[in-house]
Amino acid sequence: MKKVLVALAFFLTMHTAVEAQKKYDFENLKGSWRNKQGAGLDIVDSNTIYIVYGEQKRKVTDSRADFSKSPVWLDLAVKDSSQIITLKSLLLFVSDDLIQWQVFDSETRPAYFSMDRGDMFFLKRVSEMIN
What are the Cα distances from residue 104, in Å, to 75, 88, 100? Predict the structure, then answer.
């Protein structure tokens, strides 16, 4: 019994280590991501991204992502009336179908998630792209 438990613990440790080293890129972000209230992101490709919030769906005019950082730095520019607003955000893949996304409306972005700044979302991948 002891050998079985040791083998099981070893397997789980190896599996966790492999998952932790998994690299993500923009391909992994393609699809529709929503929180429980329906807010989220629609990502067709790196050039076609929509921010969805309530009844509003705004096309991102420019995006930049740095997947070499953990969490990923994701900047999304959106036209609002006559000006363009750049939302600086952090994104972390919790799993293949769940991301943690925090958006900051100021020019500074912390190196990691902050409990006292920005809006935090947990977005789940929905089964198909929502139009």
Answer: 10, 5, 13
